[in-house]
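wait is this the right file?? whatever heres the structure
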């Protein structure tokens, strides 16, 4: 039986909150999180993403960290319909594939996590472009996706990308 004591962020002292924030900030110092949330259509992957964002907002509020659409979680999707379903934006829109990188350095300076929904719609070329763009934006050409923790979500049994080579 697990006897660990569970507490919420709101129960932490200011010192403890500072420690939590420091530890969370250091997670990426050692290893980049790269995750994949998968499952058949209708199993609530989008709900998991929304709930994760709600939790991140509450955590930020409790620890005094600013939360906006770029600070903790950049919610993106490859199609407009998928973006609407998670209150997000398209990957191309979020990372402005046609804008210059220097215009985005300030906008993304506090990004901690990127979530890409409906990844089955991505082509190999889409992923290569996202990888290169994130390396430029986050000024890290050595690590995949600029070293930023990234979670992909989708179902590869659904539709393939239009006009490109599928990832699978």
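ok assuming it is, sequence goes like this
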């Amino acid at each position: 039986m697990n006897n660990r004591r569970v507490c919420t962020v709101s129960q932490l002292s200011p010192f403890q909150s500072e420690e939590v924030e420091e530890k969370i900030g250091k997670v990426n110092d050692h290893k980049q999180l790269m995750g994949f949330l998968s499952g058949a259509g209708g199993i609530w992957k989008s709900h998991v993403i929304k709930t994760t964002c709600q939790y991140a907002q509450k955590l930020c509020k409790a620890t005094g960290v600013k939360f906006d659409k770029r600070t903790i979680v950049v919610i993106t999707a490859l199609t407009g319909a998928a973006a609407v379903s998670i209150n997000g934006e398209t990957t191309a829109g979020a990372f402005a594939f046609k804008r210059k990188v220097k215009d985005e350095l300030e906008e993304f300076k506090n990004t901690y996590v990127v979530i890409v929904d409906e990844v089955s719609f991505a082509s190999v070329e889409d992923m290569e472009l996202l990888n290169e763009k994130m390396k430029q934006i986050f000024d890290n050409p050595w690590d995949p996706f600029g070293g930023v923790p990234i979670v992909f979500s989708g179902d590869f049994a659904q539709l393939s990308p239009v006009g490109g080579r599928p990832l699978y």
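Residues 1-8 have pLDDT under 50 and may be disordered. so i think its the right one actually
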